[in-house]
């Protein structure tokens, strides 16, 4: 294939993925219980049938007064010891390392908050990767605002923001990916999304858990490991890793993907956990952190070697029950990751 032909294919794939994202945004708008009025490219007003009014917006300015509210919101949810300093939150917004979208009340209270990252997927030594993904880090809602559909409004904001970024960079947006948190401690109970209460919501958003068929015909959920939440400047883990459910939605609407593509997605997530060498006290400390986190990627690659046809596939809760019944009838087994669930709901 000639270079210009490859470029033409990449541009067409990018346009197709952008069109899919646009349709996902429209689907969420059609299914919303809110009436909406667009204010700017990053802000809109919404009104419920009961007359509740909110503002949904993306935070673009690191000096926006709401950044202090975001930091206070996170501190209240996670605890002061687990939250990055306010200066880092400002830095991540300014340099587009993390994106924050929020729902505010008429009085300016932050009712719901979500954080995402736009992650490029490695493409060999190419300085301009043609593909990317949207990584959903967390959605949090204050208790009194849960059950009002605000998480869905945030998802619409996530999609809109990711689409804008993909169009700006001219990249194919391959997937929406996120960890469905199930760890027992307080941080892991809120920093992600609790499977017991949130999986139906994530399934409605099109995200599904990931499985593969092994050499014996049994089906196994991928053993995804969330790296330690805390790694200090010496590259030492201050908290343990844990298994979690990784959930994916593909923009080509496929229900399977090559294991090598899944590995690329996980590598992109892990690189964010490691951060840059500037975050560490020395090159040795950075290497220590990198070796720790990428060791989990090696373990995942080893676990996926038996995957039939070198592929993994996606299942929502209903599809999972159906597949399990089919396997049982054939004398085969279905293995989910068994992880303790947190007690609290965060949406």
Describe this structure as you would to a colleague.
With 347 residues, the chain is α+β, with helices and mostly antiparallel strands. The protein has a domain at 171-347. The chain has nine helices and 15 strands. The strands form two sheets. Strands 1, 2, 3, 4, 5, 6, 7, 8, 9, 12, 13, 14 and 15 form a 13-stranded mixed β-sheet that branches. It has a two-stranded antiparallel ribbon with strand order 10-11. Helix 1 (3-31) packs antiparallel against helix 4. The radius of gyration is 20 Å and the shape is globular. The relative contact order is 0.12.
Give a brief rundown of this model:
The chain is 40% helix and 24% strand.
Low-confidence stretches: 182-196
Average pLDDT taken over every residue: 90
The run of helices and strands is: HEEEHHEEEHEHHEEEEEEHHEHE
Instruction: Report Rg.
Output: 20 Å
Summarize the main sheet: 13 strands, mixed
Total count of helical runs of at least 4 residues = 9
Number of beta strands = 15
Q: Descriptors for this entry?
A:
15 strands, two-stranded antiparallel sheet, alpha+beta, 347 residues, 13-stranded mixed sheet
